[in-house]
Amino acid sequence: MTADEQEKLFEVEIERLLPGGVGLAHAEGMTIFVALAAPGDFLRVKLDRVQGAVGFASIVEILKPSALRIEPPCPYFGRCGGCDFQQLTYETQLRTKVEMIRDCLHRIAKIEDPGEIQITPSANEWHYRARANWQVDPEARLLGYFERGSNRVCDVEYCAVLAPQLEQTLEDVRKDVATKSLRQLKHIDVVVGDEGMSVAPSIGGYSARTVSRRIAGEVYSFSADTFFQVNHNLLELLIAEAIGDAKGQKAIDLYCGAGLFTLPLARRFARVTGVEAHSRAVEFARRNVERAKLENVEIANLGVADWVKHYRSFEVLDFLLLDPPRVGCENAVIAGILAMRPRHIAYVSCDPATLARDLKKFIADDYLLDSVNAFDMFPQTHHVEVVARLTAKRQL
Ligand SMILES: C[S@@+](CC[C@H](N)C(=O)[O-])C[C@H]1O[C@@H](n2cnc3c(N)ncnc32)[C@H](O)[C@@H]1O
User: Fold this and answer.
1) Does any ligand 1 atom lie closer than 6 A to the CB of residue 277?
2) Distance between CA 323 and CA 291 in Å, rounded?
3) What is the pLDDT of residues 30-85, one digit of tens each?
Protein backbone atom coordinates (compact mmCIF):
# COMPACT_ATOMS: atom_id res chain seq x y z
CA MET A 1 0.00 0.00 0.00
CA THR A 2 1.39 3.44 -0.90
CA ALA A 3 1.84 6.17 1.75
CA ASP A 4 -0.93 8.15 0.02
CA GLU A 5 -3.33 5.21 0.22
CA GLN A 6 -2.46 4.74 3.90
CA GLU A 7 -3.29 8.33 4.78
CA LYS A 8 -6.30 8.83 2.56
CA LEU A 9 -9.76 8.80 4.14
CA PHE A 10 -12.88 7.86 2.17
CA GLU A 11 -16.50 8.81 2.84
CA VAL A 12 -18.70 5.85 1.94
CA GLU A 13 -22.22 4.48 2.25
CA ILE A 14 -22.53 0.77 3.12
CA GLU A 15 -24.68 -0.88 0.46
CA ARG A 16 -25.04 -4.29 2.12
CA LEU A 17 -23.08 -6.88 4.08
CA LEU A 18 -21.27 -9.62 2.19
CA PRO A 19 -20.49 -13.25 3.06
CA GLY A 20 -17.61 -12.96 5.51
CA GLY A 21 -19.54 -10.21 7.31
CA VAL A 22 -17.90 -7.11 5.77
CA GLY A 23 -19.79 -4.08 4.49
CA LEU A 24 -19.68 -3.33 0.75
CA ALA A 25 -19.02 0.22 -0.45
CA HIS A 26 -17.71 1.90 -3.61
CA ALA A 27 -15.63 5.07 -3.85
CA GLU A 28 -13.28 6.59 -6.41
CA GLY A 29 -13.32 3.52 -8.65
CA MET A 30 -12.56 1.18 -5.78
CA THR A 31 -14.60 -1.56 -4.17
CA ILE A 32 -14.17 -1.16 -0.45
CA PHE A 33 -14.87 -3.81 2.19
CA VAL A 34 -15.50 -2.24 5.59
CA ALA A 35 -15.28 -4.26 8.80
CA LEU A 36 -17.88 -3.90 11.58
CA ALA A 37 -20.28 -1.87 9.42
CA ALA A 38 -24.09 -1.85 9.20
CA PRO A 39 -26.06 -1.64 5.92
CA GLY A 40 -26.97 2.03 5.33
CA ASP A 41 -24.15 3.47 7.49
CA PHE A 42 -22.44 6.65 6.23
CA LEU A 43 -18.82 6.26 7.31
CA ARG A 44 -15.40 7.83 7.12
CA VAL A 45 -13.02 4.90 6.59
CA LYS A 46 -9.31 4.31 6.15
CA LEU A 47 -7.69 1.59 4.06
CA ASP A 48 -5.81 -1.12 5.97
CA ARG A 49 -4.88 -3.11 2.88
CA VAL A 50 -5.25 -2.83 -0.90
CA GLN A 51 -5.42 -5.66 -3.41
CA GLY A 52 -5.83 -4.39 -6.99
CA ALA A 53 -9.04 -2.36 -7.11
CA VAL A 54 -10.25 -3.72 -3.78
CA GLY A 55 -9.56 -2.00 -0.46
CA PHE A 56 -10.04 -3.47 3.01
CA ALA A 57 -10.98 -0.68 5.38
CA SER A 58 -11.83 0.11 8.97
CA ILE A 59 -14.13 2.77 10.35
CA VAL A 60 -12.59 6.08 11.48
CA GLU A 61 -15.89 7.87 12.13
CA ILE A 62 -19.58 7.09 11.87
CA LEU A 63 -20.93 10.10 9.96
CA LYS A 64 -24.56 8.92 10.02
CA PRO A 65 -25.43 5.60 11.64
CA SER A 66 -27.75 3.16 9.90
CA ALA A 67 -31.16 2.62 11.53
CA LEU A 68 -30.06 -1.02 11.86
CA ARG A 69 -27.03 -0.11 13.98
CA ILE A 70 -26.97 -0.49 17.77
CA GLU A 71 -24.30 0.28 20.38
CA PRO A 72 -22.18 -2.90 20.76
CA PRO A 73 -22.45 -3.82 24.45
CA CYS A 74 -19.10 -5.61 24.83
CA PRO A 75 -16.17 -3.39 25.94
CA TYR A 76 -13.74 -5.48 23.83
CA PHE A 77 -15.81 -5.18 20.63
CA GLY A 78 -13.70 -3.90 17.71
CA ARG A 79 -10.37 -4.98 19.18
CA CYS A 80 -11.28 -8.61 20.00
CA GLY A 81 -11.52 -10.73 16.85
CA GLY A 82 -14.29 -12.89 18.30
CA CYS A 83 -17.51 -11.01 17.41
CA ASP A 84 -18.12 -8.91 14.30
CA PHE A 85 -21.93 -8.45 14.35
CA GLN A 86 -22.57 -6.83 17.75
CA GLN A 87 -23.23 -3.51 15.95
CA LEU A 88 -26.37 -4.99 14.34
CA THR A 89 -29.84 -5.55 15.80
CA TYR A 90 -30.50 -9.27 16.19
CA GLU A 91 -33.18 -9.11 13.45
CA THR A 92 -30.59 -7.62 11.08
CA GLN A 93 -28.05 -10.31 11.97
CA LEU A 94 -30.56 -13.03 11.06
CA ARG A 95 -31.66 -11.36 7.83
CA THR A 96 -28.05 -10.72 6.82
CA LYS A 97 -27.10 -14.37 7.33
CA VAL A 98 -29.91 -15.50 5.02
CA GLU A 99 -28.75 -12.94 2.40
CA MET A 100 -25.18 -14.21 2.76
CA ILE A 101 -26.29 -17.80 2.12
CA ARG A 102 -28.37 -16.71 -0.90
CA ASP A 103 -25.44 -14.71 -2.22
CA CYS A 104 -23.09 -17.74 -2.02
CA LEU A 105 -25.62 -20.09 -3.59
CA HIS A 106 -26.22 -17.64 -6.44
CA ARG A 107 -22.64 -16.51 -7.07
CA ILE A 108 -20.73 -19.74 -6.43
CA ALA A 109 -23.22 -22.55 -7.09
CA LYS A 110 -25.24 -20.63 -9.75
CA ILE A 111 -28.47 -21.55 -7.93
CA GLU A 112 -31.03 -18.91 -8.93
CA ASP A 113 -33.81 -19.97 -6.62
CA PRO A 114 -33.02 -22.11 -3.58
CA GLY A 115 -36.57 -21.55 -2.28
CA GLU A 116 -37.29 -19.93 1.06
CA ILE A 117 -34.35 -20.14 3.47
CA GLN A 118 -35.62 -20.24 7.04
CA ILE A 119 -33.23 -19.28 9.80
CA THR A 120 -33.88 -20.56 13.33
CA PRO A 121 -32.77 -17.97 15.90
CA SER A 122 -30.66 -18.93 18.88
CA ALA A 123 -32.61 -19.27 22.13
CA ASN A 124 -29.96 -16.97 23.65
CA GLU A 125 -28.50 -14.07 21.72
CA TRP A 126 -25.77 -13.80 24.40
CA HIS A 127 -24.02 -16.33 26.65
CA TYR A 128 -24.74 -19.23 24.31
CA ARG A 129 -21.17 -20.43 23.72
CA ALA A 130 -20.66 -23.78 25.50
CA ARG A 131 -17.27 -24.31 23.87
CA ALA A 132 -14.38 -21.88 23.42
CA ASN A 133 -10.77 -21.76 22.33
CA TRP A 134 -8.83 -19.22 24.41
CA GLN A 135 -5.48 -17.90 23.17
CA VAL A 136 -2.55 -17.47 25.53
CA ASP A 137 0.39 -15.08 25.39
CA PRO A 138 2.69 -16.79 27.93
CA GLU A 139 5.30 -14.00 27.91
CA ALA A 140 2.87 -11.14 28.54
CA ARG A 141 0.68 -13.53 30.58
CA LEU A 142 -2.51 -12.69 28.72
CA LEU A 143 -5.57 -14.84 28.04
CA GLY A 144 -8.36 -14.14 25.58
CA TYR A 145 -9.03 -14.18 21.86
CA PHE A 146 -6.87 -13.02 18.95
CA GLU A 147 -7.23 -9.34 18.16
CA ARG A 148 -9.07 -8.55 14.94
CA GLY A 149 -6.82 -9.41 11.96
CA SER A 150 -3.78 -10.30 14.10
CA ASN A 151 -2.16 -13.00 16.21
CA ARG A 152 -1.84 -10.69 19.24
CA VAL A 153 -3.87 -11.82 22.21
CA CYS A 154 -6.68 -9.49 23.29
CA ASP A 155 -6.76 -9.99 27.06
CA VAL A 156 -10.40 -10.46 28.14
CA GLU A 157 -11.75 -10.61 31.69
CA TYR A 158 -15.26 -11.25 30.46
CA CYS A 159 -16.89 -12.55 27.28
CA ALA A 160 -20.49 -11.68 26.44
CA VAL A 161 -21.16 -14.77 24.33
CA LEU A 162 -19.66 -17.32 26.73
CA ALA A 163 -22.04 -19.70 28.58
CA PRO A 164 -22.49 -18.45 32.17
CA GLN A 165 -20.90 -21.67 33.52
CA LEU A 166 -17.64 -20.73 31.76
CA GLU A 167 -17.33 -17.26 33.34
CA GLN A 168 -15.83 -18.65 36.55
CA THR A 169 -13.60 -20.97 34.48
CA LEU A 170 -12.29 -17.95 32.56
CA GLU A 171 -11.48 -16.22 35.85
CA ASP A 172 -9.76 -19.30 37.34
CA VAL A 173 -7.70 -20.00 34.20
CA ARG A 174 -6.70 -16.30 33.95
CA LYS A 175 -5.29 -16.46 37.48
CA ASP A 176 -2.99 -19.37 36.48
CA VAL A 177 -1.95 -17.70 33.24
CA ALA A 178 -1.16 -14.46 35.12
CA THR A 179 0.84 -16.07 37.92
CA LYS A 180 2.49 -19.23 36.57
CA SER A 181 5.26 -19.79 34.08
CA LEU A 182 3.49 -21.53 31.18
CA ARG A 183 6.00 -21.02 28.39
CA GLN A 184 4.72 -23.71 26.01
CA LEU A 185 1.05 -22.89 26.37
CA LYS A 186 -0.50 -21.30 23.25
CA HIS A 187 -4.19 -22.00 23.60
CA ILE A 188 -6.75 -23.64 25.86
CA ASP A 189 -9.94 -25.47 24.84
CA VAL A 190 -12.92 -25.42 27.18
CA VAL A 191 -16.34 -27.02 26.98
CA VAL A 192 -19.36 -27.28 29.29
CA GLY A 193 -21.21 -30.52 29.84
CA ASP A 194 -24.00 -31.52 32.21
CA GLU A 195 -21.40 -32.46 34.86
CA GLY A 196 -19.39 -29.22 34.60
CA MET A 197 -16.31 -28.12 32.70
CA SER A 198 -13.66 -29.93 30.67
CA VAL A 199 -10.47 -27.93 29.99
CA ALA A 200 -7.52 -28.97 27.78
CA PRO A 201 -4.71 -28.86 28.74
CA SER A 202 -5.33 -29.09 32.50
CA ILE A 203 -5.10 -25.66 34.14
CA GLY A 204 -6.77 -23.57 36.86
CA GLY A 205 -7.82 -26.70 38.74
CA TYR A 206 -9.63 -28.10 35.67
CA SER A 207 -8.76 -31.09 33.50
CA ALA A 208 -9.67 -32.52 30.10
CA ARG A 209 -12.12 -34.88 31.77
CA THR A 210 -15.05 -36.47 29.99
CA VAL A 211 -18.36 -34.63 30.25
CA SER A 212 -21.67 -35.31 28.56
CA ARG A 213 -24.83 -33.71 27.24
CA ARG A 214 -28.32 -35.13 26.72
CA ILE A 215 -29.67 -33.96 23.37
CA ALA A 216 -32.98 -35.10 21.85
CA GLY A 217 -33.06 -38.11 24.19
CA GLU A 218 -29.50 -39.29 23.40
CA VAL A 219 -26.48 -38.96 25.72
CA TYR A 220 -23.19 -37.80 24.20
CA SER A 221 -19.85 -37.92 26.01
CA PHE A 222 -17.01 -35.69 24.80
CA SER A 223 -14.16 -33.62 26.21
CA ALA A 224 -12.45 -30.29 25.60
CA ASP A 225 -9.91 -31.85 23.24
CA THR A 226 -12.52 -33.20 20.79
CA PHE A 227 -15.03 -31.43 18.59
CA PHE A 228 -18.49 -30.78 19.95
CA GLN A 229 -20.94 -28.17 18.68
CA VAL A 230 -20.86 -24.67 20.23
CA ASN A 231 -24.53 -23.82 20.81
CA HIS A 232 -26.19 -26.77 22.53
CA ASN A 233 -29.69 -25.26 22.66
CA LEU A 234 -30.11 -25.50 18.88
CA LEU A 235 -28.87 -29.06 18.43
CA GLU A 236 -32.19 -30.86 18.73
CA LEU A 237 -33.63 -28.69 15.92
CA LEU A 238 -30.45 -29.03 13.85
CA ILE A 239 -30.63 -32.83 14.05
CA ALA A 240 -34.34 -32.78 13.13
CA GLU A 241 -33.65 -30.59 10.08
CA ALA A 242 -30.71 -32.70 8.89
CA ILE A 243 -32.40 -36.08 9.27
CA GLY A 244 -36.05 -35.12 8.80
CA ASP A 245 -38.23 -38.20 8.40
CA ALA A 246 -35.53 -40.21 6.63
CA LYS A 247 -35.47 -43.93 7.32
CA GLY A 248 -34.41 -47.10 5.55
CA GLN A 249 -31.72 -49.75 5.37
CA LYS A 250 -28.38 -48.02 5.12
CA ALA A 251 -27.07 -44.58 6.20
CA ILE A 252 -23.60 -43.05 6.36
CA ASP A 253 -22.48 -40.18 8.61
CA LEU A 254 -19.25 -38.59 7.30
CA TYR A 255 -17.16 -36.42 9.70
CA CYS A 256 -19.24 -37.88 12.53
CA GLY A 257 -17.30 -36.49 15.54
CA ALA A 258 -18.67 -37.93 18.78
CA GLY A 259 -21.73 -39.20 16.90
CA LEU A 260 -24.17 -36.29 17.17
CA PHE A 261 -26.04 -37.44 14.05
CA THR A 262 -24.92 -41.09 14.12
CA LEU A 263 -27.08 -42.04 17.10
CA PRO A 264 -30.36 -40.59 15.80
CA LEU A 265 -29.60 -42.11 12.37
CA ALA A 266 -29.16 -45.52 14.03
CA ARG A 267 -32.73 -45.28 15.42
CA ARG A 268 -34.05 -44.93 11.86
CA PHE A 269 -31.80 -47.04 9.66
CA ALA A 270 -30.99 -50.75 9.83
CA ARG A 271 -27.23 -50.13 9.44
CA VAL A 272 -25.21 -46.96 9.99
CA THR A 273 -21.53 -46.20 9.42
CA GLY A 274 -19.85 -43.14 10.93
CA VAL A 275 -16.48 -41.93 9.63
CA GLU A 276 -14.15 -39.74 11.67
CA ALA A 277 -10.39 -39.05 11.51
CA HIS A 278 -9.76 -37.87 15.10
CA SER A 279 -9.05 -40.95 17.25
CA ARG A 280 -10.32 -39.47 20.50
CA ALA A 281 -13.59 -38.41 18.83
CA VAL A 282 -13.89 -41.97 17.51
CA GLU A 283 -13.47 -43.33 21.06
CA PHE A 284 -16.31 -41.07 22.18
CA ALA A 285 -18.51 -41.98 19.21
CA ARG A 286 -18.04 -45.70 19.96
CA ARG A 287 -18.69 -45.16 23.66
CA ASN A 288 -21.86 -43.14 22.88
CA VAL A 289 -23.12 -45.85 20.52
CA GLU A 290 -22.43 -48.55 23.12
CA ARG A 291 -24.16 -46.65 25.93
CA ALA A 292 -27.22 -46.28 23.68
CA LYS A 293 -27.12 -50.09 23.16
CA LEU A 294 -27.13 -49.60 19.39
CA GLU A 295 -25.75 -52.68 17.70
CA ASN A 296 -26.25 -51.53 14.13
CA VAL A 297 -23.43 -48.95 14.04
CA GLU A 298 -19.85 -49.13 12.89
CA ILE A 299 -17.44 -46.20 13.38
CA ALA A 300 -14.45 -46.06 11.02
CA ASN A 301 -11.37 -44.23 12.28
CA LEU A 302 -10.15 -42.85 8.94
CA GLY A 303 -9.91 -39.68 6.89
CA VAL A 304 -13.06 -39.41 4.77
CA ALA A 305 -11.11 -39.18 1.47
CA ASP A 306 -9.41 -42.52 2.25
CA TRP A 307 -12.59 -44.13 3.46
CA VAL A 308 -14.69 -43.23 0.38
CA LYS A 309 -11.90 -44.46 -1.91
CA HIS A 310 -12.20 -47.95 -0.43
CA TYR A 311 -15.98 -48.05 -0.14
CA ARG A 312 -17.40 -51.12 -1.89
CA SER A 313 -21.03 -52.09 -1.59
CA PHE A 314 -23.75 -53.38 -3.87
CA GLU A 315 -26.34 -52.30 -1.37
CA VAL A 316 -28.47 -49.22 -2.10
CA LEU A 317 -27.38 -46.32 0.08
CA ASP A 318 -30.50 -44.58 1.34
CA PHE A 319 -29.01 -41.61 3.14
CA LEU A 320 -25.68 -39.87 3.52
CA LEU A 321 -25.07 -37.05 5.99
CA LEU A 322 -21.88 -35.03 5.87
CA ASP A 323 -20.73 -32.34 8.29
CA PRO A 324 -17.19 -31.37 7.25
CA PRO A 325 -15.02 -28.69 8.82
CA ARG A 326 -15.19 -25.12 7.44
CA VAL A 327 -12.98 -25.96 4.40
CA GLY A 328 -15.68 -28.27 3.07
CA CYS A 329 -14.91 -31.46 1.12
CA GLU A 330 -11.85 -32.44 -0.87
CA ASN A 331 -12.52 -33.32 -4.54
CA ALA A 332 -11.87 -37.00 -3.77
CA VAL A 333 -14.65 -36.95 -1.15
CA ILE A 334 -17.23 -35.50 -3.54
CA ALA A 335 -16.15 -37.98 -6.24
CA GLY A 336 -16.46 -40.84 -3.74
CA ILE A 337 -19.94 -39.75 -2.63
CA LEU A 338 -21.10 -39.41 -6.23
CA ALA A 339 -19.85 -42.94 -6.92
CA MET A 340 -21.83 -44.25 -3.90
CA ARG A 341 -24.93 -42.48 -5.24
CA PRO A 342 -26.88 -42.04 -1.99
CA ARG A 343 -30.61 -41.47 -2.60
CA HIS A 344 -30.65 -38.54 -0.19
CA ILE A 345 -27.88 -36.28 1.06
CA ALA A 346 -27.93 -33.91 4.04
CA TYR A 347 -24.99 -31.49 3.97
CA VAL A 348 -24.44 -29.70 7.31
CA SER A 349 -22.02 -26.79 6.94
CA CYS A 350 -20.66 -23.87 8.93
CA ASP A 351 -19.44 -22.03 5.82
CA PRO A 352 -21.95 -21.04 3.10
CA ALA A 353 -19.14 -20.42 0.57
CA THR A 354 -17.58 -23.89 0.71
CA LEU A 355 -21.06 -25.40 0.96
CA ALA A 356 -22.05 -23.63 -2.29
CA ARG A 357 -18.82 -24.76 -4.00
CA ASP A 358 -19.58 -28.40 -3.07
CA LEU A 359 -23.33 -28.24 -3.81
CA LYS A 360 -22.53 -27.09 -7.35
CA LYS A 361 -20.75 -30.43 -7.93
CA PHE A 362 -23.63 -32.51 -6.57
CA ILE A 363 -26.16 -30.58 -8.66
CA ALA A 364 -23.99 -30.95 -11.79
CA ASP A 365 -24.16 -34.73 -11.26
CA ASP A 366 -27.96 -34.93 -11.20
CA TYR A 367 -28.81 -34.14 -7.61
CA LEU A 368 -31.81 -31.95 -6.94
CA LEU A 369 -31.58 -29.34 -4.18
CA ASP A 370 -34.64 -29.94 -1.97
CA SER A 371 -34.10 -27.32 0.72
CA VAL A 372 -31.63 -25.00 2.38
CA ASN A 373 -32.24 -23.86 5.93
CA ALA A 374 -30.08 -22.17 8.55
CA PHE A 375 -29.52 -22.14 12.29
CA ASP A 376 -28.09 -19.18 14.14
CA MET A 377 -25.55 -21.16 16.13
CA PHE A 378 -23.20 -18.16 16.48
CA PRO A 379 -25.09 -14.92 17.32
CA GLN A 380 -23.03 -11.68 17.35
CA THR A 381 -20.78 -13.10 14.61
CA HIS A 382 -21.25 -13.50 10.84
CA HIS A 383 -20.98 -17.29 11.18
CA VAL A 384 -24.00 -19.48 10.47
CA GLU A 385 -24.83 -23.19 10.34
CA VAL A 386 -26.59 -24.36 7.17
CA VAL A 387 -28.36 -27.60 6.29
CA ALA A 388 -28.83 -28.41 2.59
CA ARG A 389 -30.87 -31.45 1.57
CA LEU A 390 -30.49 -33.12 -1.83
CA THR A 391 -32.12 -36.02 -3.67
CA ALA A 392 -30.65 -38.10 -6.49
CA LYS A 393 -32.61 -37.65 -9.74
CA ARG A 394 -31.40 -41.01 -11.01
CA GLN A 395 -30.39 -44.15 -9.17
CA LEU A 396 -27.43 -46.39 -9.97
C1 LIG B 1 -17.82 -29.84 11.98
S2 LIG B 1 -17.25 -31.23 12.89
C3 LIG B 1 -18.71 -32.22 12.92
C4 LIG B 1 -18.75 -33.32 13.94
C5 LIG B 1 -20.11 -33.94 14.21
N6 LIG B 1 -20.86 -34.19 13.01
C7 LIG B 1 -20.91 -33.07 15.17
O8 LIG B 1 -21.86 -32.42 14.72
O9 LIG B 1 -20.60 -33.05 16.36
C10 LIG B 1 -16.18 -32.00 11.77
C11 LIG B 1 -15.55 -33.27 12.24
O12 LIG B 1 -14.78 -33.79 11.17
C13 LIG B 1 -13.57 -34.32 11.66
N14 LIG B 1 -12.65 -34.27 10.51
C15 LIG B 1 -11.97 -33.22 10.02
N16 LIG B 1 -11.34 -33.56 8.88
C17 LIG B 1 -11.63 -34.86 8.65
C18 LIG B 1 -11.27 -35.78 7.62
N19 LIG B 1 -10.52 -35.41 6.60
N20 LIG B 1 -11.75 -37.02 7.71
C21 LIG B 1 -12.54 -37.42 8.74
N22 LIG B 1 -12.91 -36.60 9.73
C23 LIG B 1 -12.46 -35.33 9.69
C24 LIG B 1 -13.21 -33.45 12.84
O25 LIG B 1 -12.37 -34.16 13.74
C26 LIG B 1 -14.59 -33.17 13.44
O27 LIG B 1 -14.96 -34.14 14.38
Assistant:
1) yes
2) 23
3) 999 999 999 999 999 999 999 999 999 999 999 999 999 999 999 999 999 999 99
